[in-house]
Specification:
Elements lengths: L9 E10 L2 E11 L4 E5 L6 H9 L6 E6 L2 E3 L4 H7 L1 E4 L11 H5 L6 E2 L2 E2 L1 H14 L16 H12 L6 E5 L7 H16 L3 E5 L3 H7 L2 E6 L2 E7 L5 H9 L5 H13 L1
Parallel strand pairs: 3-10, 3-11, 6-9, 9-10
Antiparallel strand pairs: 1-2, 1-4, 4-5, 7-8, 11-12
Helix pairs in contact: 5-6
C-alpha cells in the first residue's frame, strides 16, 4: 500500500494502557511521518516507556487504534512490529561485549551456507552497512567491549537497519555519553531522517531534542500535553509542558496568539 503524501507512517489514536489500578496511558494520540524526527519527552512516570512498548508490541495497548501507513493494524507482539517495519533500540542496547561487531550485527539472523556460518558475506554486508550510515569504527572484527559508548550506540542502531525498517524508535540514545560521542549519535539520527525514515527519539536532554527533532510530543501523567514545532517553540515552553507549569502548554500558546491578533 503506497503512502499517501502527508499521511503519517505511524498514527496512534486514543491509546490507553492500565496496570491493575494504575492508569499508565490515557487517550494518547501521536503521528510520525517519513523523513521526520519526533522527540517524545516527559518527566519520569509520564508514560514514555509504556507507549514505546505498546508501539513495539512488548506491552500491547488496552484501548485505541494503531494505524500503519493509513490502515489499522494489530501489534500484539514484537514480531508484529518488526514485520510492519518498526525497529526499536532500547537503552540497554542488548549487545554482547565478547562478540565482534559483525557477530552483533547479525546476532539472531546469521547468514549460513550449507549449514555453515558465512563469515565472509556477513563481514561484507557489515562493512557496507556501516559505510552507508557513515559509521566509523576501528574494525568490524573488534569486540564490542573495546568500543566507546557512542560507537556501541551506533552499532546498535545499525543493527536495527538490517531489517530495512520504516520507523526507528531510539530510547535515550545519548544517555551517559560524552559530548563527542553524543555528536556521533545525533549525526546518525540526522542521516536516518535523510534516508527518509521516521524516527521517534525518547530523550531527557533538551539540547539533543532541539538539535535533531522536527517536532516534540510531550507526555505528562500518561496524557498528551502538547505537540510543538521545534523551530517555533522555545525550550522554556516545552519544559513548561513537561513540568505542568501550565494546564496545557498548547492552550496557553493559542490563547497568547489570539490575544496578539486582536
Amino acid at each position: 500500500m503506497a503512502i499517501v503524501p502527508n499521511e503519517p507512517v505511524l498514527a496512534l489514536r486514543g491509546i490507553s494502557k492500565r496496570f491493575g489500578a494504575v492508569q499508565a496511558l490515557t487517550d494518547i494520540h501521536l503521528e510520525v511521518h517519513a523523513g521526520e524526527v519526533v522527540a517524545l519527552v516527559g518527566d519520569n512516570g509520564a508514560g514514555k516507556s509504556t507507549l514505546v512498548k505498546a508501539i513495539a508490541g512488548v506491552g500491547p495497548a488496552d484501548e485505541g487504534v494503531i494505524e500503519w501507513e493509513g490502515r489499522p493494524v494489530q501489534v500484539s507482539r514484537p514480531h508484529d512490529a518488526q514485520e510492519l517495519g518498526i525497529a526499536t533500540v532500547y537503552q540497554d542496547l542488548a549487545l554482547c561485549d565478547n562478540i565482534d561487531v559483525v557477530g552483533n550485527l547479525f546476532l539472531g539472523r546469521e547468514i549460513r551456507r550449507a549449514g555453515v556460518l558465512d563469515e565472509v558475506e556477513m563481514e561484507r554486508r557489515s562493512r557496507e552497512l556501516l559505510q552507508t550510515l557513515s559509521i566509523r569504527i576501528p574494525s568490524v572484527r573488534i569486540p564490542i567491549a573495546s568500543l566507546s559508548g557512542g560507537q556501541r550506540q551506533t552499532v546498535a542502531i545499525a543493527r536495527s537497519m538490517l531489517g530495512e525498517p520504516k520507523l526507528v524508535i531510539l530510547d535515550e540514545p545519548t544517555a551517559a555519553l560524552g559530548v563527542e560521542q553524543t555528536a556521533q549519535v545525533l549525526d546518525l539520527v540526522e542521516r536516518l531522517r535523510e534516508r527518509g525514515l521516521a524516527v521517534v527519539l525518547i530523550s531527557h536532554n533538551m539540547a539533543d531534542v532541539k538539535a535533531v527533532a522536527d517536532r516534540v510530543a510531550v507526555l505528562r501523567l500518561g496524557r498528551n500535553n502538547g505537540t510543538f514545532d521545534v523551530k517555533t517553540t522555545s525550550q522554556e515552553e516545552i519544559i513548561s509542558a513537561i513540568t505542568g507549569a501550565t494546564d496545557n502548554a498548547v492552550t496557553r500558546r493559542k490563547a497568547r496568539s489570539a490575544e496578539a491578533a486582536k
